[in-house]
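Dear support,

Our group has been running a series of protein-ligand predictions, and this particular one with (2R)-2,3-dihydroxypropanoic acid is the one our PI (initials K.S.) wants archived with full inputs and outputs. We had some confusion internally about which version of the output was final, so please treat the block below as the authoritative record. The input we submitted was:
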Amino acid sequence: ALSLKELAKQTLKDNDLGGYTVPTHGLYPFQWNWDSAITALGWMKFDEPRAWQEIEILFSGQWDNGMVPHILFHKNSETYFPGPNIWGANRAIKSTSISQPPVLATAIKEMLETAKDSALATEKVTQLFNKLVEYHLWWYNDRDPQNTGLVVTYHPWESGMDNSPAWDDALHAVPCVDWEYTRRDTSHVDPSQRPHKSEYDRFLYLVDFFKRHNFDSQYIFDNCPYKMNDLGIIAILHRATKDLLILGDKLGLNDERTEYLAKRAKMTEQAIGSLWCESSNYFYCRNVLTNSLAKVKTSAGLLCVYAGLATKAQTESLNNTAQQWIEASQFSIASTHPSETCYEPQRYWRGPIWLHINWMIALGFAESGFTNTANHIQQDTRNLVLTSGYYEYFNPETGAGCGGKNFSWTAAIALHWLL
Ligand code: DGY
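Confirmed final output from the archive:
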């Protein structure tokens, strides 16, 4: 049998479609944005040129306005729905019309810092830097045109946390699409581990809405029936912007555009307090259309520590919460706190553990001096992989693997962080 390390490398090689890595065959047969960023960290451990190529191919699908799409449909596949025709975004490379949590700059900074071939890494980051800057400018300008400090997201698929209970109320207010369709996901994975049809009906309404309005930023900002301040995106963007500035410093590439990004990041630091709830000591996502906090504890709230957006007192409080969270199930960190009534240990983002989120949460606590919490999360994560291998996500009660098998970002995080 292969060692866990060899198995992780083999998983990436098996999912390689020639320069980019599918998350897993069948269920997700294209290139996904944040999956690729995380997967590049895994490639970095045994094939550095291939790791850089992953990122370059992802940026080959960048839109003129700076957006890096959530999926690039490089080659046709019948195993996924909704495909490029439903999205209707026919750029040079067919893609979706939304983005995904922008962990790219953070991943690229880690890649530069850990590279054995630092000449190659420096060359690649220098080439990629301008594209990263354009991507971050797009986030702030397109998704926070009124300078509130908090970007908005237009789709649960953009958050990457598709059926998080944090979206329930906001999504419920979105109309259902009025045409029949056949899902493909539930032919690959047990439907009890996937979102419901009632959610897909609204996911598709939004996809159609963007297409009908020709991806017009201003129109969508003014009229989108779903607008969230998503803590996952806000936190991941914030950390990535700071990492981008550090890269710029190292390589002497900062200019007035990155200074502008630094100003936008400051605005986020000033605004984040409005997502903190004093009575429950937790950060929540906000439904922008109703101006109400979605008061359910999801792991996205803990990412504020990783982003450096929590004050010292908030970080202490979040550390206490995280410790209780860890104790509340056999393995941690459940994506929804196990004491919430909407917690479902096997249903995608309503309870299961996701390894890349564990990595981010642990990194945040480690950097803030809460090493016990960080170590505990890392140990649980290692035990999950030892128990079940490289699944898409894991049941916090049993450690059983759920969703797709032979999953790229799970294998990549194991290579980067555990093995
Ligand atoms: C899916 O199809 O489930 C993906 O999460 C969309 O990004």
